[in-house]
Amino acid sequence: MGEPRHTPGSPRSIDREILALAVPALGALIAEPVFVLVDSAVVGHLGTAQLAGLSLASNVLLTLVGLCVFLAYTTTASVARLTGAGKERQALQSGIDGMWLALGIGVVLFVVLLLAAPLTVSALGADGEVAEHAVTYLRWSAPGLAGMLVVQAATGVLRGLRDTRTPLVVAAAGALLNTVLNITLVYGLGLGIAGSGLGTAVTQLLMAVVLGVIVVRGARRRGASLRPHHAGILSGARAGAPLVVRTLSLRAAILVTVVVATGLGDVALAGHQVVSSLWGLAAFALDALAIAAQALVGHGLGAGDVGHVRHVLRRCLQWGVGAGAAIGLLLAAAGWWIAPLFSPDPDVRVAIALGIAVCGVLMPMAGWVFVLDGVLIGAGDGRYLAWAGMATLVVYLPFALAVAAWAPDGARGLAWLWLAFAGVFMAARAVTTGWRARGDRWQVTGA
Predict the structure, then answer these.
(1) Residue 433 domain boundaries
(2) What are phi and psi of 46, to 5 degrees?
(3) Could you tell me what percent of the chain has a pLDDT over 90?
(4) Structural domain tally of the chain?
(5) Which residues contact 272 (CB under 8 A, 6 or more apart)?
(6) Is-contact 378 445, C-beta < 8 A?
(7) CA geometry: angle at 429 spanning 125 and 81, to 5°?
């Protein structure tokens, strides 16, 4: 007898669909966290002040890039829906308009960051040597912002076409190039933290060129115009507005966490840089499942196949919680071994290990949250996510302020801070997204 056949909605066939998209998507998703981890490892051996400055600067950059993540998410959802409805030329045209929007926003942010870097760092509570290093890194890395945003939009186009392999190849090459450039510029040419920012910027711009060429070739084959269409750009901006609000609530929570860590002293802030980088790496790894769900849900709703969408949701949640448990166990067990890679300071090492242990315990819940978030984004339910995001921020703020008021400085304070963020904040997100997914108001079909 041969192998049993599986219907399109069977668990095994859905697993194949999910993994075929999620495994390659992992590479593209972790590109930015890998850049930050490489920067942290290279800069950390320059000194604690440099690592603390990088912590502030990288969080500002990740906030700006994070606020623009709608460039990837709305493009993925739009292209997936149009492709599911059989409208490939319109799908690619939507993607091209998204890339033009990304380039315009990136150029504006580049200019703003060059001018506002000192004021931004000061607003986060830094001064002296830490502030100086943070401003230096921000200004040297600012040119890469436009590149990173174009990478987001181009990656969104490819995800919508259910191609996650190409972004994987480009992200892997970018991570390797970033490592080589950072070591060469920081230590070989003696540029210090400025070299780290410059190396990352060059890498991001080159990645944008490569992915941009790939999308443009696909658009030409399908007869899509390469010129910017104002209606399409404005439509993308309107669709992305609720996701900007949703992302703003997430980044506000992260920035509040950075401000609290700054008040807990240089040791806590330096440790927070490494812990947040590892959290980001794990989060993006789990988001690979969310990206698979986003593409499959968008395509299924575009084709009007609600039953398949529900099956995808169920299996992605199972994968998300399981992957979160595995990653969490690995992080919790490896914390004491990982810490020496990032700092020679024994106090910073303790802070890193304790913070990672807290994250590891709470990672399964994070897997649940990230998958549900991706599903609702793929369904175009941005307005609900915007309201839910602001509600979860309101829940988190009193706990963050309590840590700032009563937690001790150093490693123990950092552990309490991560218990508030990875515990309370993520639990609030789990409740709001889980409640929404139980209903059917987000299951809007059609292109």
Answers:
(1) 12-438
(2) -80, -25
(3) 16
(4) 1
(5) 55, 257, 258, 261, 351, 355, 414, 417
(6) no
(7) 110
